[in-house]
Amino acid sequence: MIYCMASNRIECLKDLDQVRDLYEEAFNEPVEADLVEVLRESDRIAVAMVAEADQEIIGHIIFSPASIEGADIKIAGLATMAVFPDFQGQGIGSGLITDGLDECLSLGYDAVIVLGYPDFYSKFGFKTASEFGIRPQCDSIPDDAFMIRELHTGGLENISGTAHYAHEFDEIMQQSAA
Fold first, then answer.
1. Interval 68-94 mean pLDDT
2. Using CA atoms, how far apart are residues 5 and 35, in angstroms rounded to an integer?
């Protein structure tokens, strides 16, 4: 493990090659890197941030527009995030999540959905989405793994239904399964 001090900032064009390399190394396959590129090409990224140390990208996170059927609120989906293996466990991903949520709030988002580890994401205020009457689009997702976070009090008041990530997620998953 290499210890470092990272700073977070909004992604820019010069970062794109390093971001792809990061995802391929962190996940040992191109699927997540392909997803990031497809979302970027489709202009479906609301927030993209990098963690940088010594002018090298060591972490990345994106939030893309999402929806809840029948609800007129602005939500984002947190997916995907990666940190180079040598830098994991140092709070780099946590810093990206915190800064990314702040950026989503500043852009007027009401809530953020995520599919992930409940013990990890609950530290950032995420709660099981079913507590709000919100379901994932896929029935096979465990209830405790699909979570949502209000970005301001009352952001989910009187809201329920099925949440959907951007359609590009489905396309990439179908391609990777083929």
1. 94
2. 28
